[in-house]
């Protein structure tokens, strides 16, 4: 393993030469290769990773890469394409773990075609043999006088109602049982999803089974009664539910067709032996990553706690209800957001004890307006500080960390996370090398939010980020 050099001057000189809009990547296709396999909220676009990696590699020898808030695996894909010896990624969202594994797994084109053909043949056969079962379900629900748009009745008791229906056909179809299943999915949709899922689960090869489950996951989200384009879990309007009749099989084939092209393209582009480690793990712990082993870290942590920013767990639930990923039981799936940074509030009598003057000033101002919101904010930064400590233990001397962060506003107080990150890092031996501002034209976020939580009072959400460059200066 090569000794890492201090390349602060080289990096700073190169960053200064770049045009101000260099890091915007407006209009660029950010869904190429496996990056476009599955939708995911607040994804950092791959050109940021790719360009940082290229720049650092031009000036220093780097062999190991880490993205401790990997999300759907964008950074891991870029790390594998770049040919690192070892790439590590962690996340506490089971859906993120599945997506990251699939996106970084090379599937050979010939094998993909064979598995695809077999899968479709089995699905077609299952739908033909279940035609009567599928065609009669809506009449069965109507004859019972059930309203498929109601939360009570069909909405709350869908599993019991469908089990009784399936028994009349002596069907062995095993449907899932999660709270208010009928509120989020219509009767025929549930049956068709389960038919496809059962066929996928029969596939022995884990890599292909997971790939098809990712296609299934996107389908389950699309054919659910959830509102498209939302991170948080909202259902379409009650009056629209009756007329919402998606063709599950057709939608699944659409995602399958798209993703097969992407996985084939990835196979053509990825011709190295990079080893990827994907772990379902808390970034504040990072036991899956050896100490003093990482040369380069690039990540984009959450902007704040999931409750008030991006609800990754809520976004993932329509998929996780169906996927049986074993990392969590069905009840724990609803608690994903509580496990992320800032998910658990500090006590009401807390004091700001983190080593950041910028944060201390902001917390004091928010406290004067709303103690409860101050607790939310401080809880997030307290957890972020723990994450920085654990991450830095994994980094080698003269390794570099690139933190892509946004500065949100709470109670009309600007939280300068780029400055807070630098200040928190000082006690862990990190020195700031550079701070790069960038616009975020491609990042999917709500255009407005309510920082005061007052009805009708909104402000525009952030439209820019900072790429904070830190170097580990001491052990």
UniProtKB/TrEMBL annotation:
GO terms for molecular function: DNA binding; site-specific DNA-methyltransferase (cytosine-N4-specific) activity. Keywords: Methyltransferase, Restriction system, S-adenosyl-L-methionine, Transferase. It comes from the Bacteria. GO terms for biological process: DNA restriction-modification system; methylation. The keyword Transport does not apply. It catalyses: a 2'-deoxycytidine in DNA + S-adenosyl-L-methionine = an N(4)-methyl-2'-deoxycytidine in DNA + S-adenosyl-L-homocysteine + H(+). It is an enzyme of class 2 (transferase). InterPro entries: MeTrfase_CN4_CS, SAM-dependent_MTases_sf. Its EC number is 2.1.1.113. Belongs to the N(4)/N(6)-methyltransferase family. N(4) subfamily. This is site-specific DNA-methyltransferase (cytosine-N(4)-specific).
């Amino acid at each position: 393993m090569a000794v890492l050099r201090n390349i602060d001057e080289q990096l700073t000189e190169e960053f200064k030469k770049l045009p101000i809009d260099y890091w915007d990547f407006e209009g660029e296709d950010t869904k190429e290769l496996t990056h476009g396999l599955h939708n995911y909220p607040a994804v950092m676009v791959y050109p940021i990773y790719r360009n940082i990696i290229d720049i650092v590699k031009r000036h220093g020898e780097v062999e190991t890469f880490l993205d401790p808030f990997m999300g759907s695996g964008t950074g891991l894909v870029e790390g594998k394409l770049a040919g690192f010896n070892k790439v590590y990624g962690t996340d506490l969202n089971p859906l993120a773990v599945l997506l990251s594994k699939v996106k970084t797994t090379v599937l050979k084109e010939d094998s993909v075609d064979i598995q695809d053909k077999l899968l479709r043949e089995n699905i077609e056969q299952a739908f033909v043999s279940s035609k009567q079962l599928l065609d009669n379900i809506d009449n069965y629900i109507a004859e019972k006088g059930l309203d498929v748009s109601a939360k009570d009745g069909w909405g709350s008791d869908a599993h019991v109602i469908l089990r009784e229906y399936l028994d009349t056909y002596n069907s062995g179809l095993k449907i899932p049982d999660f709270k208010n299943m009928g509120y989020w999915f219509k009767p025929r949709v549930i049956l068709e999803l389960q038919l496809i899922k059962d066929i996928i689960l029969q596939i022995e090869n884990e890599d292909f089974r997971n790939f098809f489950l990712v296609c299934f996951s996107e389908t389950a989200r699309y054919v659910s009664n959830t509102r498209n384009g939302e991170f948080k879990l909202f259902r379409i309007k009650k009056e629209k539910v009756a007329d919402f009749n998606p063709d599950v099989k057709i939608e699944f084939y659409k995602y399958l067709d798209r993703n097969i092209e992407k996985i084939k393209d990835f196979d053509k582009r990825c011709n190295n032996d990079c080893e990827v480690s994907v772990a379902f793990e808390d970034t504040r712990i990072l036991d899956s990553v050896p100490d003093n082993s990482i040369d380069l870290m690039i990540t984009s942590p959450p902007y704040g706690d999931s409750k008030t920013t991006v609800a990754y767990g809520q976004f993932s639930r329509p998929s996780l209800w169906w996927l049986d990923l074993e990392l969590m039981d069905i009840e724990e799936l609803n608690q994903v957001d509580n496990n992320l940074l800032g998910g658990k509030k500090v006590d009401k009598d807390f004091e700001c004890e983190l080593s950041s003057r910028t944060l201390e000033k902001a917390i004091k101002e928010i406290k004067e307006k709303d103690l409860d919101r101050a607790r939310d904010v401080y809880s997030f930064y307290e957890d972020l500080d723990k994450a920085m400590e654990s991450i830095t233990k994994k980094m080698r001397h003269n390794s570099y960390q690139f933190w892509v962060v946004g500065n949100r506003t709470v109670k009309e107080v600007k939280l300068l996370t780029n400055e807070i990150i630098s200040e928190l890092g000082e006690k862990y031996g990190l020195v700031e090398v550079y701070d790069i501002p960038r616009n975020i034209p491609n990042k999917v976020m709500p255009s407005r939010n309510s920082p005061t939580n007052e009805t009708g009072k909104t402000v525009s959400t952030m439209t820019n980020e900072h790429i904070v460059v830190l170097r580990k200066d001491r052990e």
